Amino acid sequence: MTRQHFSDLVNTLIPELEEHREQARHAARGGPRRVARGTGRKPSLTPADQILVTILYLRKHSLQELLGQLFDTTAMTISRAVKDVRPLLEAHDVHIPASTARFRTPADITRFLDPDNPKIKSAC
């Protein structure tokens, strides 16, 4: 996926993702907001991060635990992001093909991205 395609996808999905989040919060509260928007605890993942995490997860690059380490959050937060974003991707007919590269630790990613080790890159 090119940067431009990802950027376009993010710009398309963020309003829908925020609307979905607001609807879920409304249902959990049982009514309208009681405090102004922007108050309270900030989410650990931005909407763009949620979309990126979901794409990486659907590509089957890594487990939710590793994505949690990379994004400094928990596997449960990654799971919620995937649960929220996946239906939006499907609604926009965006299909994420699985990759042959698999990562279990941050060191695996470092080795994969190492320019002095082309053998690993060509195998993926």
Beta-strand fraction estimate: under 5%
Question: Which structural class do you get from the secondary structure elements?
Answer: mainly alpha
Q: Estimate percent helicity.
A: 55-70%
Runs in which pLDDT lies below 50 for 5 or more consecutive residues are 120-124
Give the C-alpha Rg.
Answer: 17 Å
- The termini sit apart by 16 Å
The number of distinct β-strands equals 0
What do you see in this structure?
The chain is an all-alpha fold and 124 residues long. The protein has one domain (3-35, 45-123). It contains 6 helices and no strands. Helix 1 packs across helix 4 (75-91). The protein is globular, with a radius of gyration of 17 Å.
TL;DR of this structure?
Helices cover 62% and strands 0% of the residues. It has helices at residues 3-29, 47-58, 64-70, 75-91, 106-113, 118-123.
Topology:
Elements lengths: L2 H27 L17 H12 L5 H7 L4 H17 L14 H8 L4 H6 L1
Helix pairs in contact: 1-2, 1-4, 2-4, 3-4
